[in-house]
Write a structure and sequence with these properties.
globular, alpha+beta, 36% helix, four-stranded antiparallel beta sheet, 13 strands, D-amino Acid Aminotransferase, Chain A, domain 1, Dna Ligase, domain 1, 304 residues, 11 helices, Rossmann fold
Length: 304
């Protein structure tokens, strides 16, 4: 029996670098709710119409905002003030997960393996970097999604370019130890780990182009991992989810070290993509959960 959801507002768009992807995800969720008979409305959110949420006065909100404003706790904090329940993680948890430095601090406190890192900025001395990290290493913004601004740095020239590119995006970015291995992602739905997906990008890593544009990108699900390794990765993902006090749904990104087959947690997404190319729906489908059922299960997290 379907729960009584009342009037559900799907908020999408926003003002982050992931706005266009959010609109596609949001439309997919909205159409699914309508087809399931839910009294749903949609709002293309921007900084000038946020008060419309109060005017609409929904019973609950389905958040499909990616990046800043949507995954960093801002919209969650606003909804808390209005006492409107919403899908996914709290403002506090979202803020911690959106910032890769905060995430890493919490992971390390909980003895969850994650690559070594260092906060850097445009004035960081390259000699200082080279004294602490061997090439290759990774430079990326602390608070962006969709692999925006991520660089695998092979030499000093790459390093200068990566720092310059990141300075244009943010004044908060990190340098991270490079782990050579295969990329995997584990979807979490109501404290249950979905099947792992192996990511086989056409380039060096799962970048923005691979995620949204490439026809050569491969997703392997089932992952073809041994049962023991996959179960270990699932347990690690759930431990990560719990350590960061996440709720409802999310996705944990992992690199499996090719030498030791050791999983390293890279980051966690609290509002994963819900497009036709998205990974959470793919993992759910492997568990015989179709898109419409997945959307309703995520909506159910607004009751928690």
């Amino acid at each position: 029996m379907m729960k009584t959801y009342g009037k559900v507002l799907v908020i999408m768009g926003g003002w982050s670098n992931e706005r266009e992807i959010s609109l596609i995800s949001g439309k997919s969720v909205y159409n699914s709710l309508i087809s399931s008979g839910v009294d749903a409305l949609e709002l293309d959110l921007d900084k000038n119409n946020i008060e419309n949420i109060k005017k609409i006065s929904p019973e609950r909100v389905f958040i499909v905002l990616h990046g800043k404003g949507g995954e960093d706790g801002e919209i969650q904090s606003y909804l808390d003030k209005l006492s409107i329940p919403y899908t996914g993680s709290s403002s506090k948890s979202s803020k911690a997960c959106m910032n890769k430095r905060y995430t890493k601090e919490i992971l390390l406190e909980n003895l969850i393996p994650t690559p070594e890192y260092k906060q850097i900025n445009s004035k960081t001395n390259i000699e200082e970097i080279e004294a602490s990290f061997n090439y290759p290493f990774v430079i990326k913004p602390s608070s962006e999604g969709s692999s925006i601004g991520v660089h695998i740095v092979e030499n000093e020239k790459d390093c200068k370019k990566a720092i310059l590119d990141n300075t244009k995006i943010s004044n908060d970015f990190i340098l991270e130890e490079y782990i050579k291995g295969n990329e995997y992602t584990i979807g979490i739905l109501n404290n249950y780990a979905l099947p792992a997906i192996k990511l086989e990008p056409p380039g060096k890593f799962y970048d923005y182009n691979a995620k949204y544009n490439s026809k050569k990108m491969k997703y392997i699900c089932p992952s073809k991992l041994s049962k023991d390794i996959e179960e270990h990765m699932k347990e690690l993902s759930l431990k990560t989810f719990k350590a960061l006090e996440c709720n409802g749904w999310g996705r944990v990104d992992i690199i499996l070290d090719e030498k030791e087959q050791k999983p390293w947690v890279i980051e966690i997404n609290t509002v994963p993509g819900m497009t036709e190319h998205s990974l959470l729906p793919m993992a759910a489908k492997e568990n015989n959960i179709n898109f419409d059922d997945l959307v309703l299960k995520i909506l159910d997290t607004s009751f928690d």
